[in-house]
Specification:
With 643 residues, the protein is α/β, with parallel strands linked by helices. It starts with 17 loop residues before the first strand and ends in a 6-residue tail after the last strand. The chain has 24 helices and 27 strands. The strands form seven sheets. Strands 2-1-15-14-13-3-4 form a seven-stranded mixed sheet. A six-stranded mixed sheet has the order 21-23-22-27-20-24. Strands 7-6-5-9-10 form a five-stranded parallel sheet, sandwiched between helices. It is globular, with a radius of gyration of 24 Å. The N terminus is likely disordered. β22 and β23 form a beta hairpin.
């Protein structure tokens, strides 16, 4: 007899406001009652505990305009800089690393350049599954003659297209990058003119990587010395090369250091600041880049302007008629820590589902439960919304809202409402403005263009992007400071200028050390679990789980054939998977692309298999991103009456 399948949870579309009744259950309410209840909780929190007891979780799937208003609400209405989004969960290390080197947190190249480059390195990125639109550009590049290398612990679907696959041990990206750098130096392939003119710290970097010989790196990374040498020579000798990464690099306790290690290779070879040559973090959601650009992060005002810069603050204070705190707010990571300490009392969560997306999910739920006041604004009744005091139904940004979004290549594009929202669902910006009015601020944004024009007046890098120009050119990339000129497709051409004044700030080599994963494997937890995405599903499955897909097979723990044989388990057999934080049961899948000692799971089906009960909240000290990619686990066979 087969084991009965656990029914899939369906998340209903929100069509009417909900408030928590005296019986502890959510019930239907009018908009007036729901908004008044939400505003009263925020007002009481601010008056009793101060502005920093409030935090805003903004949405990487909503428009730029919504994110702009959300961060303005946080800073003007509530008086704090505690605003962040799921950018913290994924690519905050990319932003931190790129900003430290180049002064700008965006990828340096356009997608079209991948079509015409000579070499593509996909490092820690199964783009064929996680970024399928971008991967079409990779395929065009390959068809046009580009060579592609994949660096990944798994031999993924992306790696199947590669000329070479470097299957490194999880958490050894820095030793591998250092070995590539050392080989480039010893082979005499350094772009000396670029290094001397446009960078700083080369001598210290050269000394840093010297111990990482090909042999030493092979012992630590598991990658054959010959494969490391091949990648080093291919990258250094290519006329133009694109170095791309995703969460396999960033979702580590030292994610920012990983990013710096990769950027070092581009500086060493001059593979940046030219058409077709650059570094590109691939952002997973439609507007995770734009959310940060709009200031929905705790340390930057819209347009990447630092909160600690008094000139920038004065400009915003005059326009907004407010005083902005001259200190950074809390990151998402710090917010959750503050929930537990009770320093944080109220949260306004727009379009995020941290109850299921955060590492160590049981801890995340416990912390959310400790809040005095939780307001969730979303399109579905997520698990986080189920915990809220007030739930506000919003429109879907991709089909029911006007505005703009910004993708990984820094391209701002128009989105337009194509559908009428169901029931009483309302635009995010309208909801925010109503909430602001109840808290004493009368904002008159007649439409999304009014919001965008206010943003343009404050952000020089967006000033040239009028709605008309965005429509005319099918999107524009920032920086775009002029309404008459078109921006360049790539960043940092200044680094190639011979005039020091035009060249500007040099790019610094990052002196980063190898730091193994925090959650060590041992006899009790001998398997290394890494996580990722599949093509058929999206994030925590709230949006994609309600739709059938012929590719979807639910959640499994994937093992290599050797480990499956050693544990005497077969495909479909349920096992218990345990880490130092919790346990789940999951069926087995056998993947020949895995190596012995490595297991793989996704976060797509948390109601059936809550993978994030296993992951560890070991955070990057610079960016605050957790180490989703490196947990230690064990598996145990289950004794069951079902056969």
């Amino acid at each position: 007899m087969k084991k009965p399948q656990k029914p899939k949870k369906q998340y209903p579309r929100l069509t009417h406001p909900l408030v928590r009744g005296s019986d502890g259950q959510l019930r239907g309410a009018s908009w007036d009652e729901a908004l008044e209840r939400a505003a009263a909780g925020f007002r009481d929190t601010r008056e009793t505990y101060g502005p920093d007891a409030f935090a805003m979780l903004s949405c990487a799937r909503a428009t730029n305009e919504m994110n702009y208003v959300a961060q303005k609400f946080t800073r003007v209405v509530m008086g704090t800089n505690n605003v962040d989004s799921c950018n913290r969960t994924c690519h905050a290390p990319s932003v931190a690393g790129l900003s430290a080197v180049f002064g700008s947190g965006g990828g340096t190249s356009s997608y079209a350049e991948v079509d015409h480059t000579d070499l593509i390195v996909m490092w820690g990125s199964n783009a064929r599954f996680a970024h399928p639109i971008f991967f079409q550009h990779v395929l065009k590049g390959i068809r046009n003659g580009a060579r592609m290398y994949a660096v990944d612990p798994r031999r993924t679907s992306t790696a199947e297209w590669a000329e070479g696959w470097l299957g490194l041990n999880v958490g050894t990206d820095i030793p591998l990058a250092h070995a590539v750098g050392r080989e480039i130096i010893h082979a005499g392939l350094v772009n000396r003119a670029f290094v001397e003119r446009a960078t700083t710290g080369f001598e210290a970097y050269e000394e840093l990587v010297e111990p990482w010989t090909l042999t030493a790196a092979e012992k630590v990374t598991g990658v054959p010395a010959a494969a490391i040498r091949e990648l080093a020579h291919a990258y250094a000798t290519a006329e133009r090369a694109q170095l791309c990464w995703t969460l396999g690099i960033t979702e580590h306790h030292n994610g920012t250091d990983n990013v710096r290690a990769l950027i070092n290779l581009s500086l060493l070879t001059g593979q940046v600041g030219r058409y077709g040559a650059g570094v590109q973090p691939l952002r997973g959601q439609n507007n995770v880049q734009g959310g940060g650009d709009m200031g929905a992060i705790p340390n930057k005002l819209p347009g990447f302007q630092d909160i600690l810069d008094p000139v920038a603050r004065v400009k915003f204070e005059r326009t907004w008629d407010t005083v902005i705190q001259p200190r950074y707010g809390k990151t998402l990571t710090e917010m959750f820590e503050a929930m537990e300490s009770r320093e944080l009392r109220a949260v306004y969560c727009i379009g995020e589902n941290p109850a299921q997306s955060e590492a160590d999910s049981e801890q995340a739920i416990r912390r959310l439960t400790a809040l005095d006041h939780l307001v969730v604004q979303d399109i579905f009744l997520t698990k986080t919304a189920e915990m809220a005091d007030v739930v506000l139904p919003a429109t879907a940004a991709w089909a029911e809202t006007d505005g703009t979004t910004t993708n990984s290549e820094r391209r701002v594009q128009r989105v337009r409402a194509a559908l009428v929202p169901p029931g009483e669902a309302r635009e995010d910006i309208d909801i925010l403005c109503d909430m602001a009015e109840r808290l004493g601020h009368d904002w008159k944004f007649t439409d999304s263009q009014t919001v965008w024009n206010e943003l343009r007046s404050l952000s020089p890098d967006h000033f040239g992007m009028t709605y008309d120009r965005l429509e005319e050119h099918q999107g524009l990339q920032w920086p775009c400071p002029d309404v008459d000129e078109l921006p360049a497709s790539f960043l940092h051409a200044r680094l190639w200028e011979t005039d020091p004044a035009r060249r500007g700030m040099p790019a610094a080599f990052g002196l980063v050390q190898h730091d193994p994963p925090v959650d060590l494997t041992d006899e009790a937890y001998p398997l290394r679990l890494t996580t990722g995405r599949r093509l058929d599903s999206y994030n925590t499955g709230v949006q994609s789980g309600s739709y059938a897909s012929p590719m979807r097979r639910g959640e499994y723990i994937e093992l290599c054939p050797e480990d499956a044989a050693a544990y005497e388990v077969t495909v479909g057999e349920e096992v218990r998977v345990s880490s130092r934080r919790g346990s789940v049961t999951a069926p087995v899948w056998i993947d020949p692309g895995l190596r012995p000692g490595l297991a793989f799971m996704t976060m797509h089906f948390p109601d059936e298999v809550d993978t994030n009960q296993l992951t560890i909240e070991a955070n990057c000290p610079i960016a605050g991103t957790a180490e989703f990619k490196a947990s230690a686990v064990r598996i145990e066979k289950l004794v069951s009456a079902w056969t």
